[in-house]
Design goal:
By secondary structure, the chain is α+β, with helices and mostly antiparallel strands. The protein is 38% helix and 15% strand. It has one domain: Glutaredoxin. The protein has three helices and two strands; from the N terminus they run H-H-E-E-H.
């Protein structure tokens, strides 16, 4: 997933803020994952500009699937 995320990070720069959190080694990251109900890696929590959760994507996905989810936030 890293190459896909890296490409989309560049493509959506200034539009979408990406935060990559390692829930296995970062205690704060583990707490954030718990707060959003994340149980599997990879998971993508999509938040709107107001900070409200808009979507939770779980598991491997194609670049097109992730791009479609990001575009739906607009």
């Amino acid at each position: 997933m890293a190459p896909v995320v890296d490409r989309l990070k560049t493509e959506y720069e200034g539009v979408v803020e990406f935060r990559l959190i390692n829930v296995e080694t970062d205690a704060e990251g583990a707490q954030i994952a718990n707060d959003f109900g994340v149980q599997y890696v990879p998971s993508f929590v999509l938040l709107g500009g107001d900070g409200a959760q808009r979507d939770l994507l779980v598991g491997e996905m194609t670049e097109e699937q992730l791009r479609a989810a990001l575009d739906a936030l607009k």
